[in-house]
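Late entry, written up from scratch paper. The run itself happened at the end of the previous shift, but nothing got recorded in the book at the time, so transcribing now.
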Amino acid sequence: MLQHLEPGEAPAVPVDPQKTLEECRHWWRSWYHQCRLMEKVEACWHQPDEGIWELRGQRRNYIHSKVYAWVAFDRSIRDAEEYGLHAPLERWREIRDQIHAQVCERGLDPARGAFKRSYEDAEPDASVLMIPLLGFLPAEVPRVRATLRWIEQDLLQACEQAHHGGQPERHSYRPVD
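Output as recorded:
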């Protein structure tokens, strides 16, 4: 990475101009590819997909997928701002905010006030536990706490079934219609 020096300051270590130029080329190529990737995310984030578990059956609007689309925009915005990179920041912010609002509106099970597997299902899914870890919402938010409780109850129920000789039914792997 290029060193940031104040006028009149000398670098602490000798800088190899050839390596610096090579690093710049790599940096700009990487940013170019990241922007192309963001164009693809922009074009498809709203579409149903197979989800992280690649379940058989109909494609769904999985919360996990939507949250990671939000992460892609959020981190790309952060990178562009932090490093002064050219990007369509206003558009990216609008899309990021749209994804966030949609997930918070359509991704909740109304009876539990907790995030569910997909917009179409009222099932718990451990993949949504990434929501606070990724910065989508803080862990203290009631929706996130309710999600944690719902998944905990689901796991405890599966353990109880297994303990009594039954076959635990894991929602995350159950096929969707």
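The first strand starts at residue 108 and ends at 109.
(Scratch paper discarded after transcription.)
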